[in-house]
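Entry type: protein chain
Record version: 2
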Amino acid sequence: MFASHVRLSLLIAAAAGMVASAGMAVAQPVGNSRGEAKLAKALEGRVAGAPVECIQLRDIRSSQIIDGTAIIYDTGARLYVNRPSGASSLDDNDILVTNTHSSQLCNVDIVRLYDNASHIERGFVGLGKFVPYTKPNRS
């Protein structure tokens, strides 16, 4: 009961943040060609699979922020790309802090962003679905 209440509260907070930042999104250029190019390079030679709502926390080896674009979660065999709402605020110098209430990281979770130098919270993003990328089997 408590976990579902917390998740609902986080969803409401995320929705409020998206509404509040909607005006800012209009002023920013559409797309992030530098971020998209960096993401494409990181995924080179991999094939996208069907998006999933959650990934197991125990499987995550590392994460990488792609400026203004996405977060890559590395599980070894797969890279999961998450394009969170508010991705334009992602900075590769940020520290990601996620407060989860289960053994999974899910598309309803909120990730808080902290400046790496000052350790001051800069904001947050709401995770989207996770798209798995794997290297094709070479038979």
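Comment: The chain has two helices and ten strands.
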